[in-house]
Design a protein that fits this description.
Elements: H1 2-13, E1 29-41, E2 46-60, E3 63-76, E4 82-96, E5 99-108, E6 116-125, E7 127-128, E8 133-145, E9 151-162
Length: 163
């Protein structure tokens, strides 16, 4: 598991030396779409996919508050599919050029269940395709709390627009 996570981390940052961009400035806004689906869970094996839309507002140079909504689908091995809407609220800090670290609260309510809480930590890179459009590979770790005691490592990709 640690080897796979390390390989994903190296792959996500392999573009770092190719595309250094100016840091995000106070007042910048971004809107991006994301896809996750290459996840490794600690206590349950199955298939999960998440499509989402995230927005960011830079409250100061290199520091953004973020919010997002997604459609999360999970199918445990040998089980029935469950599809839920999730939401995230967090922050992202651009450490070096377009290299970022972020943390977010994630919540969703499974079919007929109580609200599920998780902490999502991520590291990624904003690779600019043009002046305003960027591609964002990232690796993440997500830790669930309460009845949702699941730890997940994963890879996400996204494309976004800087306003």
């Amino acid at each position: 598991m640690k080897k796979v996570f390390f390989i994903m981390l190296v792959a996500a940052f392999s573009v770092a030396s190719v595309n250094a961009q100016e840091c995000f400035k106070k007042g910048d806004k971004t809107l991006s779409g994301r896809l996750t689906g290459l996840d490794f869970q600690t206590n349950d094996f199955g298939t999960s996919v998440n499509f989402g839309i995230d927005g960011s507002y830079f409250i100061m140079d290199k520091l953004a508050v973020t919010a997002g909504v997604g459609l999360f689908s999970y199918t445990p091995d040998g089980g029935d599919n469950s599809t839920n809407i999730d939401f995230t609220v967090g922050a992202r800090y651009y450490v070096w050029d377009a290299l970022f670290a972020g943390a977010a609260y994630k919540g969703f309510k499974p079919d007929g269940g109580d609200l599920v809480n998780a902490l999502n930590l991520q590291v990624g890179y904003s690779y600019y395709l043009s002046d305003k459009v960027f591609f964002e590979p990232a690796v993440f770790f997500e830790k669930g709390f309460g009845d949702y005691d699941v730890s997940t490592f994963g890879l996400s990709i996204g494309i976004g627009i800087n306003f």
